[in-house]
Amino acid sequence: MTAVMDEAAAPELAALARIEVEKWRGDQRQVCDDEVAREVPVALEYNGISHAVMLASPDDLEDFALGFSLSEGLLRDRSELYDCEIVVGCEGIQVQMQIASERFAAFKDRRRNLTGRTGCGLCGAETLQQAIRHPAAVSGSARFSTAAIHAGMAAMALRQTLQQHTGATHAAAWMNADGSLGTVREDVGRHNALDKLIGALAYEGCDFSAGAVLITSRASYEMVQKAATLGIGMVAAISAPTSLAVQLATEAEVTLVGFVRPHSHVVYAHGHRLTNVGA
To answer: Residue 236 and residue 43: Cα distance in Å, rounded?
Structure first.
């Protein structure tokens, strides 16, 4: 589990900030310190060219950079990322990446058709074809019991350190082929948490077809798209999917599960990867 840095340890890269607040209960006022999740601008640069500025939690940024690059199709695998340097500035953080020349050429060609990007995953696209990517169908055959999905969601909550301190963050977790919970990443943005998870797994040399992703947010189109791009066969969310997410999951053969609760869930697409679906 990733430790949550505080400001005293590393102010610029801390995920937590301590501030003075007024707490009121009825007409009783108490002045005390509280912990809040830090949210900072993070610029992702490729071979000296800025591509995106995201608002993110300023920890696990190497994971974030690699995961974003893979899930957005800018890189095909981790070997194409040659270097990643975190540079802290007065107004935010720069993540300066050096990537393979072939991928950089494709990156520059793609930029000619984009005016910008934001965390929503669609802003900046000039045509519908650019906005809606269609990943190849996922071939992973890993299957999970519904009990494992329910237990995994509960186990993930216990490992959300930043959420426990602040109540303001999302998490994404990896469920291994044996049903055990693996890596967990957190961020103020749900997309960022998933990208951090993907990056961490890529650094570990993970087989993306052999597990599932659990998320503490709604299953939006972008979340399913990122998973499908990496060949992840199952996404299980604590909240609901959108219609476009269901459409993409159906098309890309991703098992999509929503409203995961201790003893219940809803299957929206490709339930064949779940066993004991009626339990």
So the answer is: 29
